[in-house]
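User: Can you fold this complex?
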Amino acid sequence: MRTTWVIGKREFAAYFGSPLAYVVTSIFLFLLGLFFFFGVFHQDVGWPFYVRKVASLDNLFNGSQLLFLFLVPAITMRLFAEERRSGTLELLTTLPVRDIEVVLGKYLAAFVYLLVVLALTAPFPVYVSTLGKLDWGAVAAGYLGLSLVGLGYLAIGVFASSLTQHQVVAFVVALVVALPFFFLHKVSFLFGPGVGNVLDFLAFRPHFDGIARGVLDSGDIVYFLGVSAIFVFLAHRLVGSRRWR
Amino acid sequence: MAGTETMVTARDVTKFYGLHRAVDRISFDLHPGEVLGFLGPNGAGKTTTMKMLTCFLAPSAGSIKVKGLDVSEEPLRVRQMMGYLPENAPLYPDMTVMGFLRFCAEVRGITGRERDMRVSRSAEQCGIADRMRDPIGILSKGLRQRVGLAQAILPDPEILILDEPTSGLDPNQIVEIRGIVRELGRTKTVILSTHILSEVELTCGRAIIVNQGKVVADASLDELRSRLRGERRRYLFAVGPGAGGAPPAEAYVRDRLKSLSWVEDVAPVDRGPGEPPTWAILAGTTNDLRPELFRLATDQKWSILELHRDLATLEQVFLRLTQEDLEPLPGN
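Assistant: Here's the predicted assembly.
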């Protein structure tokens, strides 16, 4: 546990040592701003703020989930790929640490970094609250949902990064694996009620909506934690597999 | 070493990469306080063996025990006892030397004042105390190697494993790193791999020579050197004209040399422009031929410009052991 913390701390600090994190975060915040004020005329991202004239952060939460598809792989792609490429993985894993501590440390660092990015979106709710009566409970629920969505995508990203020594490959794999979780609920109607329900269940969005509505159904939370656990487990196995190759 | 427990016991360790057998039934024992040189040409399986010792790779077959603990079963406890410098000293370029060493200490559970004390002590030992605030990325290869070394000795491990600690360094840096390793060898058990023979001669008490994944020799340096005595059969010989005479004809010199008893082969050696014709002589005996050669020269009234019996070097044994198709001591 302590080792996980030490590794996580180093990894978190490493984000601020590279320009990539700043660039990616800036682009995320910029695009989020566009989505927030102007929307895109699309059911998932919503109508422009000035058209809806509702004191809500729906646009922010919708836009974030779309942008997470790109933001999260950019955050996680470096984690293992870079260490494999430069050989530091050998240094790190021959210290007296367990593989799972390495995986969890990196995962934790990426999650805290994502929370920092989310914290940087604070001006949006503050701004909205000056225009009308903002339901802070809904805001809190939305951010909780976003964090859980992020947790899921991050686990996928960590898994993708543990596959390869090329960051670009890690990015693409993370994006491709994350994509079904992003849109499956939209195509579920094509498959009839049986399969459709399964697809609805697999997608992140319905679970996010449940949480964002303020219904703190433990099922939704367990779902996100479960998806995360599966991908973290896979990443752990992949990091360990080097021994046998 | 009798009575002391073995530090490392490797038995029939084998590693396959796919179908390629990188390490082929390597066995050896290492006793406390020994400095062992793992010597072999590139691709002989040195690095793979190091990686298995540190539990980075698992052996395909065989077992490695460190102080009685199997590396596959107790990797954490084994690593606790080890300091490891991987090949090329991979480090985090964006961290400062201080930050990196502190990180390595903390991962090992060394914190607080103890951490700071060990960091500064190992940095001092490796001569990087004045570079603590520099990012590792801007350091030279030699300094990075020292940071890697500092990281390895930081926990005061019982066993140090150094994979090619001097590769890619300039001559001055090599001398410095060797000095550090020699210093460490006084108090610790050290395994270092290298393809440089003089490194083993200068730093190690014992050498294991590996070739194509197999151990071809495992002996103390003294033993290896004494084996070499039997190999000292090559001489270099150059003569010039005697007082006032003309330079001797090359064909004549060669014939005279060949007519000596015990001389098996005579071949010219190209020493470059301005050098007299020089001959490499291969003797069929291990007895010293130099008196004979001297007498030949005085009888012929030649002046000896060079008469040299090849020194016993590890190099010859190494070449012998690692190149099966080597001709018997070629005359260049």
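The longest strand of chain B covers residues 20-30. Residues 171-185 of chain B form the longest helix (15 residues).
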